[in-house]
Design brief:
280 residues; alpha/beta; Neutral Protease, domain 2; 11 helices; 48% helix; globular; disordered N terminus
């Protein structure tokens, strides 16, 4: 089974990305995740490969591959700046495979027609189109986050997804300030926020629904992004890196929050109340 995002509003915001399940990825060896080649048909003959400091891009046309590579490196630097994880060293080059168009992507990856991209192992698969750079920024954040953590913690899903959507919003705006990807639900989110307990326990991609609005799922993503933006921009990027490191070390959310943001937020609940604009 695959994790998919396909409902209309959410797909528009998230670039309709889908991730192959963790069970399809290599087991954690404690030393990072090796690059895997997905069971997808490769690009046709004549495709160009562009290697850079952190990526290997496969695409049609040298100029196209070079531009994608340059943008990917810019997104990587944005992620490193926001997480302050400059000491993090990936285990190898991340791979980005870009098909010519939607038709080739669907035909060769067998993803659903609404899909704008798919991640497998340490590789991202997408196609040339308006969704490309948002897809790369979103999925790349997941790849970096997962490799840095080096272990699975289901309770970190809201951090992982919130950070990915935050970086996607910056890619969408083309600036350091993220675009508003959830304008249609932001007022509802503020008026009736998802509880802290649900943010930690809810698994949005497990929701099976044909509702084109999928409001509960959309609100969860919108709030995860909003909370990450607040944590990074109000709490500071140095504190955020310390927060991530504490979580990687197995600390609880309360322990990680109190140690990373000394004198600011004493617990996850205190942070949540500050995000809501209420007394902590």
């Amino acid at each position: 089974m695959m994790k998919m995002i396909g409902v209309a509003l959410l797909a528009a915001a998230l670039g309709a990305c889908s991730d192959l399940p963790e069970s399809a990825a290599p087991p954690d060896s404690g030393g990072g995740t090796a690059i895997m080649r997905a069971p997808f048909a490769p690009l046709s003959a004549g495709a160009y490969e562009q290697a850079s400091l952190h990526f290997k891009v496969s695409a049609y046309g040298g100029e196209n591959a070079h531009q994608i590579s340059s943008q990917a490196e810019a997104f990587y630097q944005s992620i490193m700046t926001d997480t302050n994880l400059f000491s993090f060293m990936p285990s190898g080059l991340y791979e980005i495979v870009v098909y010519a168009d939607h038709d080739e992507y669907v035909a060769k990856t067998r993803q659903p027609a609404w899909s704008g991209g798919v991640a497998y192992g340490n590789a991202i698969y997408s196609y040339n189109g308006p969704q490309l750079y948002q897809t790369i920024a979103h999925e790349m954040t997941h790849l970096v986050f997962n490799e840095f953590m080096a272990r699975s913690r289901p309770d970190l899903l809201w951090v992982n997804e919130g950070l990915a959507v935050y970086e996607q919003g910056k890619a969408a705006s083309g600036r350091s300030v993220p675009a508003e990807l959830f304008a249609g639900v932001s007022d509802r989110m503020r008026a009736q926020p998802v509880t802290l307990e649900e943010m930690l326990a809810f698994v949005p991609l497990s929701e099976k629904t044909d509702d084109p609005n999928a409001l509960k799922v959309t609100l969860w993503y919108a709030q995860a992004e909003s909370m990450m933006q607040f944590l990074i921009e109000r709490g500071g990027r140095i504190g955020f890196s310390q927060f991530l490191q504490a979580l990687k070390d197995g600390k609880s959310f309360d322990e990680a929050m109190s140690s990373a943001y000394v004198g600011v937020w004493s617990s996850l609940s205190a942070f949540y109340q500050a995000w809501r604009g209420g007394p902590s």
